[in-house]
Structure prediction request, 510 residues.
Amino acid sequence: MDKQNLPTYSEFYEARWFTPGKDNPSVFEIDGVRIGVEICEYLWVPNPPCEKLVTECGADVIVNISSSPRLSGKYEYLKDLVKITSGRLICSYVYVSSGPWESSTDLVFSGWSMVYENSKKLVELPPVYSLQDDERILISDIDIQELRASRRKNKLKSSLPKPIFSFESRISETLKASKYREYISHPFLVGQNYDEVFAIQSLGLQKRIVACGGAECKVVLGISGGTDSTLAILVAVDAMKSLGYPITNIIGVTLPCFGTTDRTKDNSWKLMNLLGVDGREISIKESVTAHLKELGHPLDKYDIAYENAQARMRTQVLFNLSNMEGGIVLGTGDISELALGWCTFGADHLSSYNPNASIPKTLVKELIRYKAIKDESLREVLMDILGTPISPELLPPDESGNIQQISEDNVGPYELHDYFLYHFLRTGMSAKKILYTCFWAFSGKYDLETIRKWEIKFLWRFGSQQFKRSCLPDGPKTGSISLSPRGDWRMPSDITMKEYINELESIKLG
Prediction:
């Protein structure tokens, strides 16, 4: 390739001996992956060729071959350049530099090398400090599929002309674990600033409270003793304090029925009393019993109608109470439940505003844990809530009074579903790739058959439950994913995930 940008300053004298080349972008294609090439100085100039290599030639990877001398303070700036360039162009940037065996007459070279992918560092070889350390090799896996999914999402287009050179490799297409790339088991937790997430939730609610009457507006929510309603009431308290309004403007309601256990009910009251909200208890047993009798439904038939009658009664009570008190109903459900449709249509699926709308279950738990660490007065009750099995408590407890209906027994582990959700929506992984990378991410905690079982469940539920997401209440987006039909996610309610499921079912494991 021809080099255009010739450095001629300080220790560089290239223009004395060379003539700048033509504007001839170098792009190679190997197995459909487009690799653009830059030379040294290109990274440092205001209008680097990598912009054309990506936008006009469709390069997925930029490789910079460099001889950059080592100077004090330069390495951190270099890393920032590589990181920002890879993020701005949604590409992988591979930077390799000459090592310490070059002449040291006036300069020292030390083998700076690194690979970044869309602003994320994959691997790095820091400067050499000894000649004994010079024989090093930089190996990394780059996820081209994820890069292209991000480009589609961000409308980064290229004309994709034919590359100058094209090759085919003999690399096997068999999907195998890579020792060069790490897959994170809980991707929603990576890089999270818990204070910032909580602040976004609180600020969104503050705006809604002001719009609905300000200091006269009451916030009504059901408190179940579970993690979701716990996070919601913590956000509500912060919002009221930030606005300078009375905490008693928050009306927390426990709504015991057939499946309510002493543990969750006690924790509900402990939490409300410690926070200083207006705590109330409204039993719905009699009203649900009367309703089931009106329907001609047996009280000992524990089917979906039996469960949903309770969920809808709770929501009806909360909305009627908010009308009576002059307030709004705060939603508590999280994005993991919305993805699975693990909510009752026309019941806990509805609210006036939901601060948890884009918070995944794994993050809900960590936000509560973070609050427990920061606030000693709440620590005991918050930790007990975290230790309580996740349950809608719509079925009677066992003979010992313990929760009988465990959500994860029905839908599967939420940590798996959050992994599926993140990579299905955020990185655009195929169903097959999600299966294997999930297995690697959890380091054998789950076998492949178990992961496949729950991924099929996830895909089936995600596809069949879109009708609930098509009419979601308002709620703030706090991270990289939202299922709001007014925001990130627009999907017909009558499609199927059959092709994805068939792909998984066809894999021969073992």
